[in-house]
Amino acid sequence: MTALVWIILLMTTATGAGVVFSREPRQQVLAIAANGLVLTLLFSVLQAPDVAFSELAVGTVALPLLFLVALTSIRTDRKDPP
Predict the structure, then answer these.
(1) CB-side neighbour CA atoms (13 Å) of 10
(2) What is the dihedral of CA 65, 68, 73, 77, to 10 degrees?
(3) Which of 77, 76, 75, 69 lies closest to 29, judged by CA?
(4) Residue 33 and residue 15: Cα distance in Å, rounded?
(5) Which pTM does this prediction carry?
(6) pLDDT 10s digit of each residue in the chain, 82 long?
(7) What is the DSSP letter of 47?
(8) How far apart are CA 71 and CA 75, in angstroms?
(9) Interatomic CA distance for residues 67 and 76, integer angstroms
């Protein structure tokens, strides 16, 4: 493997750790989007453009958007019953 692939793999590890170790849900969604973007770059370097395009559409756009819609629909201002 080339040095570029190793660098992208380290970036994938870093963004994956960012998803796991962040506590705020919106930060986790941004980290998931960043992870999808890095995976898109990895698939492009590995000469798999169809997989890269699918990862770009699903992992970078659709999934984070779905999570953000779900997070905005959750009500956090209500009080819990006793």
Answers:
(1) 6
(2) -170
(3) 69
(4) 9
(5) 0.82
(6) 799 999 999 999 999 999 999 999 899 999 999 999 999 999 999 999 999 999 999 988 999 999 999 988 887 766 766 6
(7) T
(8) 9
(9) 16
